[in-house]
Design brief:
about 120 residues; alpha+beta; five-stranded antiparallel sheet; 5 helices
Amino acid sequence: MYFGIGNFKEVYKQIQQNSNIEFCTTVGKEFLSYFGKAVFEKDDTITENILASAPSMQKIYNEKTGYKLAIFCVKKQPQNLELCWESRKLILLTNDLIQRGRNATENQYRFMMTL
């Protein structure tokens, strides 16, 4: 999963100084929290593909404005994925715990890692 941010924004500068990052999202009562290290892409191909598919973003990120879109992914850390459903909390810690069947099946783990 890739994220994009303008390299002129304050949050971009913050991520450059401290690459530890977390994002959270909800759908109804389901909750996902994912954290790790932000790793910025050096290959402009990804940025070019994103901008080619998003004309509205091309108006912001171009040579005329001087703004550039910085693309990064979040490299997972051990013990990094936490899911909550209503009042039950499911924590996926490591592949090793999943293999032992303590917290989730391997298929559930693979599904969540592709979100």
